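Fold this complex.
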Amino acid sequence: MTQSDLSEHMPEASAEPAIVIDHVWKYFGSLPALQDVCLTIAPGERVVIIGPSGSGKSTLLRSINRLEQIDMGSILVQGKNIQSDENNINEMRQNLGMVFQQFNLFPHKTVLQNITLAPRHLRKLSREEAETRALTLLKKVGISDKANVYPSMLSGGQQQRVAIARALAMQPSIMLFDEPTSALDPEMVGEVLDVMVGLAEEGMTMICVTHEMGFARTVADRLIFMDQGQIVEMGKPETLFTSPRHPRLRQFLNQIL
Amino acid sequence: MEDKKEGSKANIVMVTDGASIPDPREWRLINAWSIALAGAVCALCMLCVLWPEPYLRILLYLPDGVLITFKITLLAICCAVPLGLITGLGRISRNRCINLLASTYVEVIRGIPLLVQIFYIYYALSRFVQVSGITSAVVAISFCYGAYMGEVFRAGISAINKGQTEAARSLGFNRYQTMRLVVLPQAMRTILPPVGNECIAMLKDTSLVSIMAVPDIMQRARSFVGTTYLYFETYTMVALLYLIITLLLSKAVSIMESRLNYYDAK
Amino acid sequence: MLRYLLSAIMALTLVSSQVWAAETYVVASDCTWPPMELLDANKQPVGFDIDFIRAVGKAAGFEVDVRNIAWDGIFGGVATGQYDIVAAATTITEERKKQFDFSDPYYEVAQAVVLPAGKSIKALADLKGLKVGGQIGTTGIFVMRKSGVNVDLKEYDDVGLAIQDMINGRLDAVVCDDPVALYYVNKKTDTAGKINIALVTEEKEYYGFTVKKGRKDLVEKLNRGIKEVRASGEEARLLEKWMGKK
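Structure:
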């Protein structure tokens, strides 16, 4: 089935899936990083992807906003093919917020400027509008007092919360989290997860690659276990945690729990 | 695992022949820079006061040469820095054509001594186009240093963590906006000292233009020596003059560098 | 005993023969000033001055080792003793006499103003406002400065570059010694026909060999040699060879 067939058959209703990943393959050199991955995510769904390192979970996430180019298959975001030249990838990315493991805040900009940069240049908001929005978001992530400092003055947890606010400032309908707590000191993991839980409760469509099993258990509508570039098992978190069917998932859970 | 590749290129070593830029964090009063400057200024003043003949006479003979040297350097900086930026961007361009063009330019220019380039533009190309000595000097120096600076820009831009580009792109910025708003402002900080260094080296290299009968500091000095045969005295003054100018410039670069460090944690 | 004496005498003769063997002087010349000095096809210095100093050496009993040194530093080198004699079409001037000693004059020149073919001037003053070139540190430049004519004076590393620039149109006139001007006008194939001598100054200049201040011995040898070269007719032969004069 080709990509165009798929999009033609997709109804224009609200029931349209947020993301459709269809038979996706990705190679690093001759090494397959994703092998025939298929996944459909509904609007408002919270998906958590787990798996050992090198299992392709970050690659899958980064493929969704085309930070990685896939080699075969197709990915549709709200019905639009991200590979197609007809769709402006930059506009599509504005709708796909992303949070990185290493925060990737812009060090030469203050916290406020980090958050207002994209809305001002891409959404053409006035300075006041953008700043008002940014301050609201900073309050939401709980660091409104740090608006005018540079990222280097913040702790890792604070930086990651700013990064979430920065992604939210574009008012995306989907948020992608790429191991958002892996680079944090343990005492800071909680503050970031709290923000993410809050976001989940608001009904944001979220796809999160993480090792935080507690978070997965409380937040995820669906848990996906990946290994060797394949989706090995998926389902309700309770089901996967309590009765994993696949031996690789059992082995993985034994190692981390 | 695939995102662990970053940061390996963070350490860049650049060797140039310019004066070394003083460390902006250097707070001590006595350091190599202050000793050199104080020494040079004292020596200059003492020579002029104690033996106005010939030292003061030499000093008064040189200022129009200083102006020419500054003029050439300034014009060349104005051309070489943008040229370097374009070359640097061309070198990292994914467009194979542009990339090849920029790389070939760098390769060709770096393989030809500046003196030969100056001769070439002024004397060899005069068969086709005739330009004044100052113009050829500016063109030759700009092309030469544009290539060197291209490498500096390239290295400075590549040294910026890939995550910065990814963060900007994921927000929806296009490649141009990402470069302008996120990568270049950060790269400036790594780029400024070596670029400043190149500019100072450029000022020193303008002394080559005297072969085109352009009356810069060096040629004024040679002309003075040509009539008086005071080799020691004249070239002592010239050396002191160049030293003072380059030391002041390197301090200026250092101050600019510290301004660019505003976003560092203490 | 006799054997000792003999060997002592032999040793003495050996030493003294070395002392009496012709001394070698290093001669510096800037081979960008044809026909006075230039490099031949084998990159060897040749020219009137070179032949002349060799003849002088032969007459005065010393060997010469000619080296090609850029004009810019040639006086500095003789002052510091890197070489003994400058034979480079050097005009004896009052300023130079303060710093160096000179032999007797051996050649008379004047300054020539060279213009592109077809152009002419009547006096130096006609150069007013024009771009005039010459070799840095030569009397052509000095004459222009002293003349008080307001010109844009360009000082080149060698006179050939100045002539080239004039042919290219970036320079209006070149001032240099008249034999050099004649050489470029008549003999040098790539410039002949493109330029002409518009004016030769009235005031004469005299070439002398330059030595370090205080080398009276050397000056004396040079003067003796010059005299002998003149008397023997060697000078006339060299003039004919290089200048075409009889």
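The CA atoms of residues 168 and 181 of chain B lie 9 Å apart.
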